[in-house]
């Protein structure tokens, strides 16, 4: 066994977490002592860490095969969980596989088996059909955001996967909503349910802003000016609406990113990178951004369009007021529009006049080298400081992917920096550096 229990303090230190919250402690004990567990807890409460810690303790470091399989409903959630496991520094190899990238890339990574495989049901089922990897050593199965996987049509693939796994000893299901009906194919006998949904967003304020026009575009701009320079998500129901809103904000010189299912995977990832590092303060998104993506605490979200169901409303709001912090969900409401019944006690507010948000102080740079080239964050910072003549204060968040990296740099320094560092060597690789 990995001895995770005695190393838990080290793992939490690497994640900058002082101690586990009550839900995480209860989940750790439940999964450690039960074959089947259902975890119900709001978005942003730390469910991923809650189920990963006991899983790591079950893994055998002497076994070079996949031992735990985590099925997720979206590419972003697969990538996020992979990054969390790597940042824990457990010593166990982890890979994420998902649609939207070449299957040949999966095969290369899976030749050296990970102990933990994270993937979307469609891609995992495809590899099992092709017998890319053996399944006999997979003893732990996690269905993360299980209700969402069923909702978007993964039932057939999940049934096929589970029927192909003969030696499952632990099953863990997670959800951020109560509406979870577990099909028989999951084989979840006598599960222990941990339910923290009653703790959902106690510090969330819901406020309504009245728009005199049905399209609400001017009201949205005024709301953004009212809120000032702070990060938030503007939720829309359709990608066509996102494009309309994006064009309008661009005309008003308000910087932003876009995030929805119709974008190429690379464009979605880069939109999140620029949002995380502060290049963009605003993200216009569909419900794809309501859960399962790696972004930090937000002070607000805006419902430009309201979802049809309370579950989506809850998940959107879960992007703010997380982990005992305050947050606000703003509803933009046309004056002739009726709010759905599931919205209660929404305070109507007036907007205060304010100036337009100022452009971000950060720009994102792309570097054509990453983990496979043995490049570290320290290598990048060292290059920018020594050859680029930057100070530490001019360098923001650095994110390293397998074959590339992204760095937030003070916008005022980019023009002078690029000629000094582009086509330089990082480790043994000559890298191209450009503005993303």
| Strand tally | 20
Structural class by helix and strand composition: alpha/beta
What best-fitting shape do the alpha-carbon axes yield? globular
Mean pLDDT equals 88
The CATH topology of the largest domain is given as: Rossmann fold
Strand content range: 15-25%
Q: Under the CATH scheme, which architecture of the largest domain would be assigned?
A: 3-Layer(aba) Sandwich
Q: Helicity, in percent? A: 25-40%
What does this structure look like?
The chain has a 7-stranded parallel β-sheet with strand order 3-4-2-5-6-1-7, with helices on both faces. The chain has a 7-stranded parallel β-sheet with strand order 10-11-9-12-13-8-14, with helices on both faces. Mean pLDDT is 88; it is low at 1-6. The protein has 3 domains: 4-199, P-loop containing nucleotide triphosphate hydrolases (Rossmann fold), CATH 3.40.50; 204-348, 3-Layer(aba) Sandwich (Rossmann fold); 362-435, RRM (RNA recognition motif) domain (Alpha-Beta Plaits, 2-Layer Sandwich), CATH 3.30.70. Helix 2 packs parallel to helix 3 (47-58) and helix 6 packs across helix 8. The longest helix has 14 residues, at 75-88. The chain has helices at residues 4-14, 22-33, 47-58, 75-88, 103-111, 121-130, 146-151, 155-163, 217-227, 239-251, 265-276, 310-317, 377-386, 414-421, and strands at 36-40, 68-71, 94-97, 116-119, 140-143, 170-175, 192-195, 204-211, 232-235, 257-259, 282-285, 300-303, 327-334, 347-348, 362-367, 395-400, 405-410, 425-426, 429-430, 433-435. With 436 residues, it is α/β, with parallel strands linked by helices.
